[in-house]
Design a protein that fits this description.
The structure holds two protein chains of two kinds. Chain A is α/β, with parallel strands linked by helices. Chain A contains nine helices and ten strands. The chains are: A alpha/beta, B mainly beta. Chains A and B meet through helix 2, strand 6 and helix 3 of A and helix 2 and helix 3 of B.
């Protein structure tokens, strides 16, 4: 189980800004969670704080009861935490197969690299020897990024908007892929997404806005709430016509 | 004969574990020590100055020539002039490398001036590797000059590699391409400590429909300095592309000047140049796969310089 206790994250700048505010969350084993909510609500920061890219300003993070708050990215990765980037970085001179082999190198099970590519809808023979550089499209990069996470035997897998940029790949395939790793490795999956079809995979849905958890419940309850209420879920009270004196910069 | 150090040098500069097959000439501390010729490839010592003529017969296919140079003493200043005649419609690989092991306090230097005549329709791959080691403070200096005359329809692939070890280098490369000639230059350079490296490459597209591509990738670490100057000159209908990328680290300096000069309305020339740090996202990605920060950095650099 992954547990966040009173986790806050502040970014220092000209004025310090609190991105995550006193987050308390429990991610139980073998469950699928979807985190959703408006842009800028803190979803990606939550993912990064789980992977160790950011360290919380206060609060604690526990993995199976062990305090991992001060552990760096490498240490968390070796404990079985994985993270698929929203915008994956590119590498000049590194081939798709090399990146996937690196990803699979800590997995005690034999991983078939070609099957991984198939699972994300890419044809192995077309991609294995291509460089993970600017010659790949955004959608291709996203699929390869997901494959690097599938290559690992993880306790916790975090996917940051996996559907973004994947236009032609059927959601059906993406959904099957998530279910497969969930079943194969008993991985707890946390997906940041705005897509209803991704939300349908979830055991639980968490809505984040303004750096806080504004709702968390079983899938059907949250989905019903979202479907019945098409007003925005952001925390700011915005009413059309108010603030006539505001200057629009454009 | 070759001792263990000589063999290590040969392995580093020419990927040779034993005496090579085919034609070769091994030069050590300013003198030729071993040579082999084949029915199609002759190697002749120059009579007017230091160096060799390598003569490859027309239509020679699938053969290789290794001409490694090793310097294992200090205070050597070796200048050598090598001329290569690559016969019409031949298809060969030439590997020239220089390894310097300098444990002394004085400078050791090797300047190789190589002139190639790549005849009509020939295909040449030329690999030049530089390697240096030694605990002494004696400088290891290499100043190669390479001139290539590429005739009609010939195809030349050039690989210029220098990873660490050489304290000072100034590399001049001049290439002239005739009708339909094709050229690909791949340069890989890594400097560290207070090493300095300068590379000047000038390619002239003289013939119609010739094409040239220069891909340079370098890493500058510590207090080292790199200076690049590329000039792609279009004097006829043809295409050229320069792409140079550098990763800069620590207190290093990289000065890169890509120039394209068109003297013909149908010359299509492009240059791209970029210098930057290792992106933090790249490090984070590899660390999130279980690599330490140092392993991630090494992986990114070795991929980049591959």
């Amino acid at each position: 189980m992954l547990e966040l206790q009173k986790v806050s994250l502040e970014i220092e700048g000209d004025t310090s800004f609190e991105i995550l505010k006193n987050i308390n969350l429990k991610f139980y084993d073998k469950k699928i969670y979807v985190v959703t909510g408006p842009n800028g609500g803190g979803k990606s920061s939550l993912a990064k704080i789980i992977m160790g890219v950011y360290n919380p300003t206060s609060g604690e993070i526990l993995l199976d009861g062990q305090d991992i708050t001060t552990m760096n990215i490498t240490e968390r990765a070796r404990m079985g935490v994985g993270y698929a980037f929203q915008s994956p970085p590119r590498f000049k001179g590194i081939k798709v197969k090399e990146l996937l082999k690196m990803a699979a190198s800590h997995n005690p099970e034999q991983v078939n690299i070609c099957d991984l590519l198939y699972d994300v809808g890419l044809c192995a023979q077309d991609y294995l020897n291509r460089d993970v550089d600017a010659s790949l499209s955004g959608g291709e990069m996203k699929r390869i990024e997901i494959a690097t996470v599938l290559a690992r035997n993880l306790k916790i897998a975090v996917f940051d908007e996996p559907e973004a940029g994947i236009d032609l790949w059927s959601f059906q395939k993406l959904a099957e892929t998530f279910r497969d790793i969930h079943e194969k490795y008993n991985t707890t999956i946390i997906i940041i997404s705005h897509q209803e079809r991704i939300m349908e995979l979830a055991d639980e849905i968490i809505i984040m806005s303004n750096g806080m958890i504004s709702a968390q419940s079983e899938r059907d309850i949250i989905l019903a709430g979202i479907m019945n209420n098409d007003s925005c879920v952001c925390g700011t009270k915005c009413v059309k016509g108010v603030g006539q004196n505001a200057e629009c910069v454009g | 004969m070759l001792n263990a150090l000589d063999k290590l040098m040969l392995e580093k500069v020419a990927d040779l574990h034993e005496i090579p097959q085919g034609a070769f000439n091994i030069r050590k501390n300013g003198a030729g020590i071993q040579r082999n010729t084949t029915a199609n490839i002759d190697i002749v010592t120059k009579t007017d100055k230091s160096g060799i003529d390598v003569i490859i017969k027309p239509y020679t296919k699938g053969e290789s020539v290794h001409i490694p140079v090793i310097v294992t003493e200090e205070n050597i200043n070796d200048v050598v002039y090598n001329t290569f005649e690559v016969g019409e419609y031949s298809d060969v690989v030439i590997v020239a490398g220089c390894g310097i092991h300098n444990s002394g306090h004085h400078k050791s230097q090797h300047d190789g001036i190589h002139t190639f005549y790549v005849r009509k329709g020939a295909k040449l791959k030329y690999v030049e590797k530089h390697y240096g080691q030694g605990e002494g403070e004696g400088q290891r200096v290499l100043n190669p000059k390479t001139i290539l005359e590429v005739e009609e329809g010939a195809v030349v692939e050039l690989e210029l590699i220098q990873i660490k070890g050489i304290d000072q280098t100034k590399r001049d490369t001049e290439i002239r391409l005739m009708d339909n000639a094709k050229l690909v230059v791949t340069e890989r350079l890594l400097t560290y400590k207070d090493q300095e490296a300068e590379s000047n490459i000038t390619v002239e597209l003289l013939g119609a429909d010739s094409s040239a591509q220069i891909i340079s990738r370098s890493v500058a670490q510590n207090d080292s300095k790199q200076v690049f100057y590329f000039d792609l000159v279009g004097r006829n209908k043809g295409r050229g592309h320069i792409q140079c990328d550098a990763i800069i680290m620590h207190n290093a300096q990289v000065l890169s000047t890509p120039r394209i000069s068109a003297h013909h309305s149908e010359a299509q020339l492009v240059h791209e140049a970029a210098i930057g740090r290792i992106e933090s996202e790249q490090l984070i990605k590899l660390m999130s796969l279980g690599f330490s920060e140092q392993e991630a950095e090494d992986t990114i650099l070795s991929g980049f310089l591959k």
